[in-house]
Amino acid sequence: MATAAPLPPTLRAISPLKEMGAYEALWAKSETTFKSLAQKFREFPDRLPSDFVAEYEADYFARLVLGMLRESGIAQFGIRVHRAGEYPHKFRDAEDPVEVLYYRGWWDLVETPSVAVVGTREPSPQAIENTSRIVKLLVNDGYTIASGLARGIDTAAHKAAIESGGKTIAVIGTPLNRIYPKENSLLQENIAEKFLVISQVPVFRYSKQTYTRNRTFFPERNKTMSALTEATIIVEAGRTSGTLIQARAALLQRRKLFILESSFRNPALTWPAELESMGAIRVRTYEDIRKNLRPHADSNR
Amino acid sequence: MLTRIDDLHRPDHYRLDPTDECFFIGEYTAGRGFAHSTTNQLIYNLKKTVDRRGTPEYWHKEEAIRRAGRALSLFLNPEFVRHGTFVPVPPSCVPDDPLYDDRITQVIRQIDPNVDAREIVRQIVSTPGAHLVQVGPALRSSTTTMKSWNRWSNPSRQ
Q: pLDDT for B87-129, tens place per residue?
């Protein structure tokens, strides 16, 4: 006698591993960009990555990437999928919001009040000093410090946050199993263990591309970092710095954007005045930052 | 949407095997306190002890029960809600303990007041709440599955 199939208990549930595999499969197509993916999900807002990929394909890439991460020594990592629990709505403020995020460490830090401190990879000694001072004051005010783990200001920001007993989030422009620059290997590991490392970069696609093509992932993570945080502070940046991508993203996402006075004094730079006219805040003292941030429960103010 | 426990999460739940179908709404982080995350706040409020009933803070527990029930009703299959049977995880105290807390049954009732909920797994001895101890209580030794389902079944479904 035939028995009826049991009723599925849920309408639909998200399997993070399957969605990761589908995301990697979508990225395996050479024409895929963050823009094209975001467009796809704007057109079909109720869909998941696995709706655009055959099941065997999602499964194949899930196993492949799981293997690649484990081979690189990443035993534990997590996946956040848009529309599943613990994916904060604020990430949707990004111009091209991502459907899948990889992370290592304490995901809950995304819920803490946070500020991004970013800037050039070749900072002046004064900029390093400014970074350290601002970060310590922000930590004292209860903010988590986000940055991109790049050389220069980013590294100084993460280190200052850790040294002053604060929390830090690295939003990296490489997959979880890659480190750039190499000299930040210990720092990345330390942040993954005690704090949080987030990546939106597909593992398989990255492994198949040249360094030049992979460089395009860096500015994309800046948009995500801006969406994660309530403000971005530019300590020092050149004329063509990727930091400026984050600056524009912050304004577009209605986040606060702070630019240190020293950048305004540099006659070679036109972007500080341009961004100020678009809503950026000029910082002469830390008070200019503090009074423009929302007070919160952990603040020492 | 609910998240399915798949091969990525399963190593954290060694009692589950790949044939078990388990879903969850959010992730509770142990040892990090109430303010750590939205889910931690929900769980802390759900776990407020029943001896605080009547105090202003008890409102947070009732609200947490409503929230959890609402979240489940959004994601569960309405056909399953109509025809399925729900077995709540028992609280840490035995039913005649003054601290007995049927919060999970109340969450289930929020999904639909007519849902078939049966308290067929019960504590036979009160234990400290899992959130209050480092290692979870030995489930097998302190719980029992009731042999007779009929005793708790919903008469309207007979």
A: 999 988 888 899 999 999 999 999 999 999 999 988 888 777 6
CA distance, residue B1 to nearest chain A CA (Å): 5
Residues in chain B: 158
Could you tell me which of A71, A51, A106, A97 has the C-alpha nearest to residue A204?
A71
Kindly state the DSSP code that residue A96 receives in the 8-state scheme.
Answer: S
Say yes or no to pLDDT of B86 above 80.
yes
- Does the reported pTM lie above 0.95? no
Element (H, E) at A62: helix A55-71
B113: DSSP letter = T
Residue A61: burial class (beta carbons within 10 Å; 0-12, 13-18, 19+): buried
Q: Does A160 score more than 50 pLDDT?
A: yes
**Using CA atoms in the order B71, B75, B79, B82, what is the torsion angle rounded to 10 degrees?**
-10
Please state, in angstroms and rounded to a whole number, the distance separating the CA atoms of residues A118 and A140: 19
Q: Closest residue of B to A14, CA-based? A: B3
At a CB cut-off of 8 Å and minimum separation 6, what does A200 contact?
A: A34, A98, A100, A101, A102, A217, A220, A221, A224
Closest-CA distance, B96 to chain A, in angstroms, reads 32
Helix, coil or strand: residue A154: helix
| Pair of tokens at residue A176 | 């979880």
**Chain B CB contacts of A107 below 8 Å:** 27
Within a 13 Å sphere around the CA of A194, how many CA atoms are in the beta-carbon half? 15
Could you say which DSSP state residue B25 is in? S
ipTM: 0.82
Please state, in angstroms and rounded to a whole number, the distance separating the CA atoms of residues B93 and A60.
Answer: 46
Question: Residues A224, A171: contact at Cβ < 8 Å?
Answer: yes
Closest Cβ–Cβ partner in A9, A15, A106 for B77: A9
Chain B residue numbers with beta carbons less than 8 Å from the beta carbon of A86 are: 26-27, 37, 39
Question: What CA–CA distance (Å, rounded) separates A146 from B1?
Answer: 28
Biggest distance spanned by C-alpha atoms of chain A: 85
pLDDT at A245: 94
Flag whether pLDDT at B147 surpasses 60: no
